[in-house]
Design brief:
Blueprint (H helix, E strand, L loop, with lengths): L1 E2 L1 H12 L3 H10 L2 H6 L5 H12 L5 H9 L2 E2 L5 H9 L5 E4 L3 H10 L2 H5 L2 E4 H4 L6 H11 L7 E4 L2 H9 L3 E4 L3 H10 L7
Parallel strand pairs: 3-4, 5-6
Antiparallel strand pairs: 1-2
Helix pairs in contact: 1-2, 1-5, 4-5, 5-7
Length: 191
């Protein structure tokens, strides 16, 4: 999935009648989004904090929708995911996400539940990448030795943390790069 925090900021601002900079300061710079993604606060508490600070009369569900309608499918990955599914290679998701965002991901890309068998979500784990515990949770859920887990992320600090946890971790550049890395590891796909 691809996402835009700027879109979230602007949509929240439009919903509550506040400026984008005020939303940026409260939600992203002030740590509200991190508290939400780490499971410290609920959807309702997240929305209530924004509504209280902005003085808006908008409904909480409108704020959550505005904050969450930020995703679109990375179509370049669909052929790779399909090929991996065809050879029954188990796939998992390890994500910094909050309940509102996760529900939106499932709405935008219902194939997520078909292609992936395990999910480690920061708001459930109570730890965000690059925190150590979320990687431990992923290894435990995978039921495999850390070194046999092929991990991909778009942030260098998350790659470093995954490597520290013993995973075979790589910075995402493109779907083509992932095909090559999997081929190097002997993963044979039906294509």
């Amino acid at each position: 999935m691809r996402y835009s925090h700027e879109r979230s900021r602007d949509q929240i601002a439009d919903t509550v009648g506040w400026g984008p900079q005020e939303v940026q300061q409260l939600v992203f710079e002030g740590g509200l989004q991190d508290r939400y993604e780490s499971g410290e606060i609920s959807c309702q508490q997240f929305a209530d904090e924004i509504l209280r600070n902005s003085g808006s009369q908008a409904a909480a569900h409108e704020v959550i929708t505005a904050a969450s309608r930020i995703f679109h499918l990375n179509r370049d990955l669909v052929p790779l995911l399909t090929a991996l599914r065809m050879v029954n290679l188990p796939l998992g998701i390890l994500s910094n996400t909050c309940p509102g965002h996760w529900q939106e991901v499932l709405r935008v890309a219902p194939l997520v539940q078909q292609y992936f068998c395990c999910f480690v979500l920061s708001h459930e784990s109570k730890c965000m990448k690059p925190g150590r515990e979320i990687y431990r949770d992923a290894i435990r859920l995978a039921g495999q030795p850390a070194e046999s887990i092929f991990f991909v992320d778009d942030r260098p600090e998350n790659i470093e943390a995954a490597r520290s946890a013993g995973m075979d971790a790589h910075l995402y550049e493109s779907a083509g790069q992932l095909f090559e890395l999997l081929d190097e590891r002997g993963v044979r796909l039906n294509y």
